[in-house]
Amino acid sequence: MSKELIEKIVESVLQGRRNKDDEGIEEGLAGEPGVAELVEEALEAGIDTNDILLNGLSRGMELVGQKYETGEYFIPDMLTAAEAVEAGMAVMEPHLVREGTSGAKGKVVMATVEKDLHDIGKNLVSIMLKGAGFTVIDLGIDVPAARIVEAAEEEGAGLVGLSALLNTTMSNMSDVVKELEEKGLRSQIKVIIGGAPTSEDFAREIGADSYGKDAFAAIREAEKLLNN
Amino acid sequence: MSERGIIVHKPYARLNREQIEMIDKASLDLLENPGILCYHEESVSLLEKAGAKVKSTREGEHDAWWVSIPANVIKEALDTVPSKVTLGARKPENRVIIEAEGNRVHFGSGSETNYWLEVKPETFVSKENGHERVIPVLKRNRGNLDYLCRSAHLAEQLDNLDFFIRNVNVQDADITTGNKDVNVFFASLNNITKPVVSGVADIDQLEKVVRMAEIIAGGKEELIENPVVSFITSVIKSPLQVVAETAEKLIAIARLGLPVVISTSPQGGSTAPIDEVGMVAQVNAEALAGITINQLANPGAPVIYGAVPVRARMDDLHDMYGVPEFCHYNMACAQMARYYKVPCYSTAGVGDAKVPGIQASVEKMFTYTAVPFAAPGLIHYAFGLLDKTQTFCPEQAILDNHKIGMAKFLYRESGVNEEAIERTKKTVEEVMHSPYRMYARYARGMLRRGEIFAGFPFEGESEDQDQTLLVVHERLKELEAKEPQYLSAEICKQIFEEIPGLLPRLNPYKEDK
Q1: Using the beta-carbon criterion (under 8 Å), do B440 and A23 form an inter-chain contact?
Q2: Is residue B447 within 8 angstroms of chain A, CB to CB?
Q3: Looking at the structure, do residues B250 and B362 belong to the same domain, yes or no?
Q4: Mean pLDDT of chain A
Q5: Is B254 a domain residue?
C-alpha cells in the first residue's frame, strides 16, 4: 500500500500534477488525485515523512532530471514537476515543522538585482530550488542590495541567489557582496549569481561564491554551497 | 485522400483574376502567333488534325514546322485534362494525390546532378596557437549508382520528402545509353517506398521501365491504379520549340495512361523575357502546348503542368534560383495552373551557392517560404541541391528537410476561434493569480501535441565555430546505417529475370553482388 502510494506520488511528479484539477503530460488525468492529495493520503496512512520526501518527491524530480538530460522532457515539464513537488511540500510543511526537519536543505534568498525587471531566469531557479527541497524566499525584481542582505539576515538564509539580464545591471550584483562584507555576514551567507550577461569570470571578479550557467547548474551549485 | 504534404490555407494570390485572364490571353495569342516551332512530325500532325495551321521549314539540318495553334484547340485539350492525379507508391500510404484546385503541397527531390558533395570531418591544428579543430572538408565526386541508391534510401527517411526524383546522374563505367534507364529506375524503386518520378533518357528503354513498374505494382491494371512510376518530359526547348525525341516520349507515355509532368524551364533574360509578365506569358504558353500534345495523343491522360522558370545571372547567364524574380515567376505559374484546373509542379529550395552554408541557407529558406504559399501541388528540387542544380549534398538534404518543416509550420492556420479565445482568457486569468505568473505549464500540452516547433536540431556546442555541418554529418551516418526497405526477393527475382540490362550488383539478394 505504502509503496503503491509512493509510486503514485512519483508518477504525479513526472506528470507535473499539483492537484486533482491539473492535466498531466498524458491526457485524461484531470480529476485523479495529484501530488497534494497523494501526499495528504500518505501522511494519513502514517507513511514516514522521510519516505515521502526521498522516495516520492525527490525520486520523482530525479527521474524528471534524467528525462530532461535525455531530451525527453523540456523546461515546461521540469517547471510543472517542480511546482507539483512544491504543492506536496506545502502539505508536508506542518509535519516537518513538528518533526523539526523543515527546510532541511537550507534557505535561499532569491532576487533580481536593482534596476533590473527581468524575472524568468530568477523564477525558474526559484521554482527548481523549491522542487529540490530548499526553502526559497523570493524577493522579486528590482531589489536593492541592502534589502537583499537584510532579508537574508532576517531569514537566516545560507545562500543568496542573484539574477540580472542586463549589462547595465549586472554590476549591481557586486553591491550585494560588498553589503554582506560590510555587515560582517559574508562568511555565513554564500552568493550565487546567474543571468545571460554573467559568467564564471564575472562571479570571480565580484567575489561571488558560484555561478549557475543555467537553472540546473544553479541547483547543483546550491547543493554544494549548502553542503547537502 | 493523400495525407502527405501540407495544406496551405488561403493560398497567396499574387495575380488577380483580371491579370490571370490577361496572361491567359497573351499565352494563347503567342501560341497562335508566332506559334510554336515543332521538330516532331507526329505532334505536328496531331495539332494539325485538331485545327492548327502548319507550315514546314528547315532549321539547320532538321525538318521543322511552324505551328499556329488557335485558342480553341488549347481550350478543348484543357477540357479533357483530369484535375486530380495520383502518384503511386510502393507503400499505399505514401501515395501522393494532387488536386488542381486543392491546397495540399508536396515536396520532392531532383534534379539529376552530376556531383555528389561529400562531407568529411578532418582535424586541423592552428598555426597560431596549436589548438586542434575539426573542420568539415568538402569533396565533389562524380555521381554513380551507389550514390543514387544512397540518396533514395536517405529520401525514404526524410519525413518532409513526399516524392522522389532521382538526384544523381549515374556515370559508372558499366552504364550505357542502353541500360541506364532500367538501372536508375531499379536503383530508385528498390530503395524507396514513396512515389518515384523521373525522366527517361532513351525511348527504347521506356517499355522495360514500365514492365518493371508493372511487376512491382502487381500487373498492368494495377500500375494504372497505382502508378509507382510517373514521368517527366522536357518537351519544350524555350522559347516555344517542341523537341522531337522528348515529344515522342511524351506521346508514348500519354498512350500508356501514366502520369507525366510537362516540364518547361525557360531562363528569364536568355530564353525568355526576364520580366514577370513576359516570362509567365511565355512559360505558360509552353506548358499549354505540351499539355495539348499530351491530350491530343490520349484525351484524359493524367498530366501535370510543370513550369520551372528561372532567372539568368547577369554576369555569366547561369541559372539563378534564390532570387525574388524566381518566386514571382513560380507563384504566378501556380495560379495559372489552378486557373486551368491542371495539377501543378513547381520549384523551391535550390541553392545557387556551391556549398552548404550561409548563402545556401538564405537562398533556400527564401524560396521555401515564398513559392509554396501559392499552393502548387508539387514542389520539386527541394532537397540537397547546390551550385544551381549541379551538386547534391546529402547533409544539405537533411538540413533542407528541416527547413521545409519550418516552412510547413508557417503555412498553418491561425487557430483563432471562439473556443481558443475563451481558453486564452481563462489561462491568462489563472496565470495572473499564480505565484510566478509563468505560462510554461500551459505550453506543455502544445509541446506534446507537436504544436510547438521544436527549433533547430543541429546546433553545435562551440562558441566560436559553426558546427552545424558536423552535427548533420553524424545524423547522416545514423540514417545511412538503417536497413533499406528493399523490394521483396520474389519481385527482385522476377525483375532480374525479365528485364534485360540490369546490373547484378544492384540485386540486394544476390550473394556475390
Answers
A1: no
A2: yes
A3: yes
A4: 91
A5: yes
Peptide bond connecting A163 to the previous residue in cis, omega within 30 degrees of 0: no
CATH number at residue B377: 3.20.20.480
Range of the domain at B440: 418-448
The shortest CB-CB distance from A74 to any of B441, B445, B447 is to: B447
Confidence of residue A69 (pLDDT cuts 50, 70, 90): confident
Mean pLDDT of A134-161: 95
Let me know whether B278 and B342 are in one domain: yes
**Residue A209, C-alpha cell as written in the block:** 561564491
CA B177, CA B111: separation in Å to the nearest integer?
Answer: 19
Residue of B nearest to A16 (CA): B441
Same domain, B341 and B398: yes
List of residues 6+ apart from A193 with CB closer than 8 A? A161, A162, A163, A164, A173, A202, A203, A206, A208, A210, A211, A212
Given pLDDT bands bounded at 50, 70 and 90, which one contains residue A53?
Answer: confident
Whether B441 and A75 lie within 8 Å, measured CB to CB: no
* Closest CB to A25 among B436, B440, B444: B444
**Cβ contact, residue pair B444, A77, below 8 Å:** yes
- Residue spans of alpha helices (H) in B357-439: 358-370, 394-410, 418-432
Which chain A residue shows the shortest CA-CA distance from B445?
A: A25
For residue B444, give the nearest of A76, A126, A127 by CB distance: A76
* Helix (H/G/I), strand (E/B), else coil: B121: strand
Cα distances from A209 to residues A116, A133, A141, A206, in angstroms, run 21, 21, 21, 9
CB-nearest to B436 from A25, A77, A123 is: A123
Q: Flag if B436 and A77 touch (Cβ within 8 Å).
A: no
3-state SS string for B142-161: ECCHHHHHHHHHHHHHCCCC
Query: Is there a single domain that holds both residue B435 and residue B390?
Result: no
> What integer is the mean pLDDT of A119-127?
87
Amino acid at B464: D
Instruction: Please give the interface size between A and B, counted as residue pairs whose CB atoms are below 8 Å apart.
Output: 27
Q: Is A110 on the interface with B (CB under 8 A)?
A: no
Contacts of A80 in chain B (CB under 8 A): 440-441, 444
Which domains can be identified in chain A, with CATH numbers?
A: 2-99 (1.10.1240.10), 107-225 (3.40.50.280)
Q: Is residue B38 part of a domain?
A: yes
Contact B448 A25 (CB under 8 A): yes
Domain match, B60 and B134 both: no
Q: Does A16 touch chain B (CB under 8 A)?
A: yes
Domain membership of residue B321 (yes or no) is yes
User: Residue B268: which residues within 8 A CB-CB, separation 6 or more?
Assistant: B274, B275, B278, B279, B309, B310, B311, B312, B325, B329
Task: State how far residue B137 is from chain A, nearest Cα, in angstroms.
Answer: 30
Residues with pLDDT less than 70, chain B: 1-2, 511-513
* pTM, rounded to two decimals: 0.89
Nearest to B254 by CA among B205, B294, B206: B294
Q: Which of A123, A128, A136 to mutate to test the interface with B (most CBs of B within 10 A)?
A: A123
**Pairs from B407-411 (Cβ < 8 Å, separation ≥ 24):** B407/B365, B407/B368, B407/B369, B407/B372, B408/B6, B408/B160, B409/B453, B410/B369, B411/B6, B411/B7, B411/B8, B411/B9, B411/B105, B411/B372, B411/B373
Residue of A nearest to B448 (CA): A25
- Whether A79 and chain B come into contact, CB under 8 Å, resolves to yes
- The three-class DSSP label of residue B485 is coil
Contact of A159 with A192, CB cutoff 8 Å: yes
**Cross-chain residue pair B443–A127, CB shorter than 8 Å:** no
pLDDT of residue B442: 87
Q: For chain B, how many structural domains are there in total?
A: 3
Higher per-residue pLDDT: A62 or B15 = B15
Asked whether residue B485 is assigned to any structural domain, the reply reads: no
Note whether B65 and B122 are same-domain residues.
Answer: no
Q: What's the CA gap between A136 and A218, in Å, rounded?
A: 13
